[in-house]
Amino acid sequence: MHRRSILMGSAALAVPTIARAANVEVTVLYSQPGLYKEAHETIVREFAKREPSITVRLLAPTRAYEEAASAVLRGAVTNSIPDVVYNGTNLLHLFVDRRLAVPLDPYIAADEGFARDGYIPAMLSTGHLGGHQYAVPFALSTPITFYNEQLVRRAGLDPDAPPADWPGMLDWAQRITALGAPAKGIDIKWQTTGNYLFQALLFSHGGKLLSEDGKRVGFDSPEGLRSFQLLREMVTRGGMADATAEQAMQDFIAGNIGMHLTSSANLNTLMAQIGERYTLRTAPFPVPNPDARIVSGGAAATLFSRTEDKRQAAYKYIRFATGPIGQTIMVNHIGYLPCSRVAIETPELLGNYYARDRNTRTSLSQLPRATGWLGFPGPNSLKAIDAVYAAMEATVAGRSTPEQALARSVEQVNALLPR
Amino acid sequence: MSDLALAAPLSRPLPKGILLAGPAALLMLLLQIGPLVLVVCAAFTDWQLGGEAPNFVGLDNFRALIADHDFQASVLVTARYTLMVVPGALLLGLGLAMLLQGARRGRTVYQTIFFLPYIATLAAMSIAWQMLLHPSFGPVNQGLAALGLPVANWLRDENTALPVLALIGIWHETGFAMVFFLAALTSVPTELHDAARIDGLGGGWDRFWLVTAPHIAPIALFVLVVLTAHAVMVFDTVALLTQGGPGNATRVLLFVIYQEGFSFFRTNVAATATVFFLAITLTLGMLQLRLGRRGGAA
Amino acid sequence: MSRWRHPLLILAAALMLLPILWAALVSTRPQDAIIGARLLTMPSLDAIAANYGRAVTASPLFGFIGNGIAVCSLILFFQVLIMVPAGYALAKLRFPGRETLWGGVLLGLMVPAPVLAMPLFVMVAMLGLMDSLPALVLPWVVSSLGIFLMRQFFRRVPDEIIEAARLDGLSELELLVRVLLPLARPTLGAFAIISLVAHWNELYWPSIVVTSAERATPPFGVMLFQTQEAGTEYGALMAGALIIALPLVAAFLLLQRRFIEGLVAMK
């Protein structure tokens, strides 16, 4: 299909087909206003131009995903859940287990424009749970390697040929650390919410979070052990400090850390804070083999409306925000990954954006290998995430060996999973 | 704890006391006692926010919580934090008040400066502390290194994280304690000091113990109770600076309650932890008041 | 002692001010010069404009401050309305349930408000008050600390004053309003400061009941610059923190004299 016609198609979707007598109001809640505010407000303005019969009202944003989730659960008590909530895909269990989220499948089935807009299947899969589509990704990121070109050069390494696998990565890290304090080779933001980077290590090595029947952990495996071992090796060989996520990021910004492995979402902030200090470069996340899976996570739109007319209206809004135009606005403001292939490939939308800056293309290049950012099922879902976090922390601090950390987290998480 | 007695004889006209204290009693019943009872009830169920109707589960939550290592740790951590902050802020507050008491010039300025940490939004100030304490380019470590003293990653070290949080706690609360002591000292009649001087009680310490101390004892007790209440409910600094870590080094009780309730969404577990928490604070409070009474202070 | 007084006071003041001065310094630096900068980087006017500009425009900060003023003054108004008669009754009148009420007040001093947030939230929600001014005010209208302070104050008022007023034919209410309230001004001033500081900086409860920007309180506008995922905007955060502290500093300077006097009543 020709790109032009695709665009026309998605524009056609926006034309109001039936003149509604009553104006429908859709309430929307999102998190991290420091990051998303302008993007969301712009999208709502653009949507209003196209759908005058639907009023989208943005609620006071919450600071973190967990707080938005908290607002949803509180809303369940008072029958006042926002119509649409942008949330971390790993929190989906909370809403699905409590039967609060509305499956989107019937709306997608009735929506001709959906296929045309080129939603990338790997990304849609992040909003898939128990055979239903509960969320449409809005802004996703993948973990990538950020590195300091000058520091890498000082260590006698070639910044144009970053290592693609772990042995190469640890070797670079070791050589940068050898430059002496304050230089440190590597840092991975293992503290990221929802065990995001642990899942990055695990899934890229082919590991599983849960067993086939979903009743036990799936990382009680060589891949799980390897993930903990890599964490430890980054400390022992790569010069990684036992620091908070904030400290590590500041250290990287100051130019003391060679390579910083974290979500591609950090690109804009890092660029802004590094400024002219040094040249920021990016490379794909190191993986054992070229077709390894890359965990992809971030905010996805979930539908909660209780009445059918609100659901219809809210769905239209979701489609606009996650469609080519909404995604173009989002990427231009915050640099997350769009979930619409049309947006990526159309020059007037994002084509030119990606042509401009090579750093923005790294995360995009991992897109075909994307896999979902997962949560644990059951009422102890988030406590289980915390158990894995504690195991990672103990490994990085050297309080536990990788073997002990794995054994303990497996035992704890198994006890927290529903039978 | 309930104010049932208030609803007593209705045949006679209500005593004036009931008319005047009634609104307060009613509102306390509605806004404090009632919610308290609800929390206690929730602790015996499997209720989770947004979930389906709760079931009674007996003591299951209590058993689970007592066996939970994170929870056990949090009781100890809270106790250690309190034992650092309360004496620290109390003594510093008293010391500053005594210094200020005799100052002729600049009293207002000092007073304002010492009270500023209490006024400033603690959440935002925590971030300022975080930057000050940054391991590589925080002014604290830079200063120590320049003096040839050892540096540390203060908030990531199991041995220093809690003392550092306690230091921030003291910084925040000292001004609060100070103003109360200042008020108490102002009220010590000067004749008493003069009399003491005439009686030949020359030394500062003697005079402090014989003249000042008895006078400020009631306020000291009040400050002790309030500082303890503040310390056991420390939250902002922990949530923003350490999230309970490293390990369990700073996992204070209120943070556990918050985490269970609003991060893990285990409402029933949070309620159970709350019941423990209240039992501890109430015991402490009663103990302090009783001690105060025995000491003749209250 | 007196020789050391001012050096000690100056040292203490410097230590107390350090984090606040640091916050002020950070608020004068451009985003790319905050981390790893030398301690004495020259403040840049552009950065000051950028940080303070962002602090007041990224969210409707002045609107939040307006909300904060409304919420805090309403809370204070109701607290005073309730605590003055209650404190008086506890101090000077005998009535059934007095000891129970006093026990409740002492209990209230020790129960931290956040632990009651969940049931209070359910109550507020069932009353249909979510995201409203009453929701922000209601849970705090009765203050144990306030009743405690008032009782302690009234206990020190000589009974003769009260008797004399009664002989003049004043009703209990008139006695309170015309005679005792003016006497209690310093104590009320002291309580006002404590109450204002507590509710102005409160982040926990508003974050539970506020869902729209129209109702948000000052700390909201500041803390939104702190994000885990994409890094914190330190300059704007510190600028915001300083801005929202100003009204409280003003209130303290205004009430300072009263404040210390008022606490004298504590004994």
From TrEMBL, chain A:
One cellular component term from this protein's GO annotations in UniProt: periplasmic space
Keywords, in A-Z order: Signal
Principal subcellular localization: periplasm
Signal sequence coordinates: 1-21
Gene3D superfamilies reported for this sequence: Periplasmic binding protein-like II
Keyword Signal in annotation: yes
Localization (cell): Periplasm
Pfam family membership, one: SBP_bac_8
Keyword Nuclease: no
Alphabetical list of InterPro entries matching this protein: Bact_solute-bd_prot1, SBP
Classification via PANTHER family: ABC TRANSPORTER SUBSTRATE-BINDING PROTEIN (PTHR43649:SF30), ARABINOSE-BINDING PROTEIN-RELATED (PTHR43649)
Family, as annotated: Belongs to the bacterial solute-binding protein 1 family.
Stated name of the protein: ABC transporter substrate-binding protein
From TrEMBL, chain B:
Entries under Pfam families matching the protein: BPD_transp_1
Subcellular location: Cell membrane
Classification via PROSITE patterns: ABC_TM1
Entry-linked InterPro entries: ABC_transporter_permease (IPR051393), MetI-like (IPR000515), MetI-like_sf (IPR035906)
Span of domain ABC transmembrane type-1: 75-288
A GO biological process held by the record: transmembrane transport
Domain of life, per lineage: Bacteria
Stretches that traverse the bilayer: 20-45, 81-100, 112-132, 164-188, 208-233, 269-287
Membrane topology of the entry: Multi-pass membrane protein
GO CC, any one term: plasma membrane
Keywords (A to Z) from UniProt: Cell membrane, Membrane, Transmembrane, Transmembrane helix, Transport
Annotated family: Belongs to the binding-protein-dependent transport system permease family.
Name of the protein this chain belongs to: Sugar ABC transporter permease
Organism ancestry: Bacteria, Pseudomonadati, Pseudomonadota, Alphaproteobacteria, Acetobacterales
UniProtKB/TrEMBL annotation, chain C:
Residue spans crossing the bilayer: 61-89, 101-127, 133-154, 175-198, 234-255
Subcellular location as annotated: Cell membrane
Domain ABC transmembrane type-1: 65-255
GO aspect biological process, one term: transmembrane transport
InterPro entries in the cross-refs: MetI-like, MetI-like_sf
Protein's membrane topology: Multi-pass membrane protein
GO CC, one annotated term: plasma membrane
Domain of life according to the entry: Bacteria
Location, primary (coarse class): membrane
Keywords: Cell membrane, Membrane, Transmembrane, Transmembrane helix, Transport
Pfam families reported in the protein's UniProt record: BPD_transp_1 (PF00528)
Family matches, as PANTHER family: ABC TRANSPORTER PERMEASE PROTEIN MG189-RELATED, ABC TRANSPORTER PERMEASE PROTEIN MG189-RELATED-RELATED
Membership in a protein family: Belongs to the binding-protein-dependent transport system permease family.
Protein name per Swiss-Prot or TrEMBL: Carbohydrate ABC transporter permease
Gene source species: Rhodovarius crocodyli
The organism's taxonomic lineage, starting at the top: Bacteria, Pseudomonadati, Pseudomonadota, Alphaproteobacteria, Acetobacterales
